[in-house]
Amino acid sequence: MNKQSGIHYLHERKDAGSQNGLPSEVVRIRDTVSAGLGDLLQGAFDAVDDSLFELANNARSNNEQNRYFEAMREIRIKRKGIEKHFQGAVVKLFNHPSRIGATPFSQPEGQQQSSADSLSLVQNEELEEQVALNAMVSKSRAHFQGPLLQLQTRFSSVYPDATDDAPVNPLAPELLCAAFVEAAQVLEIQIRERLIVLKQFDRYVVSNLGMLLDEANRILVQAGVIPNFRYHSKTSGSSTAASASTARSPESVGEQVAGDSASQYEDEVLFEQIRQLLGRHRAASGQMPRAADPTIQVIGTSELFQLMNQLQQPPRDLGHRNLSAGEPVVLDLHQVMEQLLSHTQPAEGKKPALNEMDEDLINLVSMLFEFILDDYNLSAPIQVLISRLQIPILKVVIKDKSFFSKATHPARRLLNALAKAGIGWSESDEKSRDKLYEQIHNIVLRILEEFEGDISLFEQLGEEFDQFLARENRKASLVEQRTRESERGRIKSRKAQETVDKLLQEKLSHQPIPDTVRDILTNGWSRVMFLAYLRNDVENRWNSVVRVVDDLIWCLHPQQDDNDRDQWVRVVPGLLKSLRAGLEEVSYNSSKLDDMMGELKHELTEAFRAHALAEARGQSREEPEATEPEPSETTQQATQDDAALAEHVTVIDGLTIGTWVEFGLVNGARFRCKLTAIIEEADSFVFVNRMGLKVVEKSRLDLARELQRGRLTVLEQGALIDRALDAVVGSLRGHTAQA
């Protein structure tokens, strides 16, 4: 390749002082990228710390909470070392670049299709980490395809040992991820916390590689390295991409690919992990691959779907009346499949059986509904309704396997929406008169009667349900907003009155106060204080009205020191003026206000003259020596109770607006409600029902006690299918470990 081709070989003009003989432009890129990745990694570790702290706050046991706190401590101690190691590894990638080939996390080409036996040799934790890393690299390569392609070509022209068959790119995502994994090996944490670290690394570092790639390309273009990028590959597969890149810029190609496949890679991670776990489970149980068994005839997917059409009917004993009557229906899907296959005609004496993919899907649906029917977060009527959809959902996944891997699948979105909308249902609700129940009931009925394989039915029902929810939520939101504002005002008023009463009681208990003055303060000035407390956010008068009380009590106390008596003379005129203005503002006893102020002046004057008498009283009255009261048994018991409540108070402090909970009453009845307001100044938590109406108000300690007694349950609001899939993964992992 000559210089006239547009490529200027930087290694022909290396700076004499550059390290490892690198061109100055590459050194500049290396230093910029190293610093940028260091900053991004700091953000990732900060996010890890926040995530672990939140998980610890929401932990359901002391052991689980301690586990997260220990992980936080481990990461905080070692994060600086990891950051330094990672940046050093990045520098090494530039100084001694690796050749681009298979990702460090993928298997060799000949081992891509792993058997169940080989999968059984992989540890659970290694499998999870490998799947997460492969997804991370694949997503980033799809998202930044254009910049990566340009940078790889330019770097390969800069480094003398690079060739078209063995290109180099120090910023390849797989190399950066491998460098981080190596640096993070020092962390002694469990797999769940390690996956959190990888997730935040992906979110904060890998997902933000674009700006560093663009900067690196810009520096090389300025240096004259392939300023007009055109990529031509020798392979036929790459020639298609090359022709596309000549018609469109690499950036536009990368954006299009990212839009089509980035989310797909992310969604497929969990499904692929489940399938691998199922494969290991089959291998551990000694099952022979279906294709290797000559005594069976594998039934095709389309044939299986036709067989299943005869299973989907509404329960005959219920008809159209009430699909949520009775208990949730639990079907043994394996038995149902065996009965279906028994009615098929065997070919050449072979036994009919399902292929492994269909069997995996049936197993997943079975485990999915086992979770759904055991999920306490679902209200009972909605749980029964969703249990009727086992056969339709099985038909969905047989027809369209992306149900598990695609979060936006119409059937999956509809199930999540039904579960979320029905979380506020209680067993005591009147179903026959509720529009929400009627809507969900009709959706389930239509699926049972109409679904024959067209997934668009779920999309249509989902759109109709979203429109219905939008109308209902608008109504409930208005009622909830009025309830919230009303409760805030009422609770703040109550808090204001309690604060005023407590403050006056405390200040008036220290010394005898004339009845006239006591009446003015408790019945008149207390109203001024009440209004000042409520308006303090705007007017900032609270401290000044409290100071009036302090000044009045001080002026009623006989002053013996000359400086104090001079101060008294200066304070009293302004004090009387403030008292009159405040009492007039609240219209306190306006007909007798002049007489009351006259009596107040008289009391103040008498107090000023009584310094001699006060001195005599002060000599005769001795203050009793303060003694430290011994803690009573009641006090000790209260202290122990508070310590026991600490764990539950932490859970209550983790509640956020919109959280659904379930309260249990003494008589055994239960009801569900949503947290709509936390009024900190009054230590008050306000809950409303589905219609936005207030149902209960409790303090933080009251809620903690309810939680301690088992009469309060915090409901999980995550997407139903997502939670079910997480549970399935945990169950499979446990079974595989035992095997």
UniProtKB/TrEMBL annotation:
Q: Where is this region: Disordered?
A: 1-21, 237-259, 615-642
Q: Name one Pfam family in it.
A: DUF1631
Q: Please indicate which superkingdom the organism of origin belongs to.
A: Bacteria
- What InterPro entries is this protein classified in? DUF1631 (IPR012434)
Q: Where is the composition biased (Low complexity)?
A: 237-252, 632-642
Start-end of Basic and acidic residues biased regions:
615-624
Q: What is this protein called?
A: DUF1631 domain-containing protein
The lineage, from the top, is: Bacteria, Pseudomonadati, Pseudomonadota, Gammaproteobacteria, Pseudomonadales
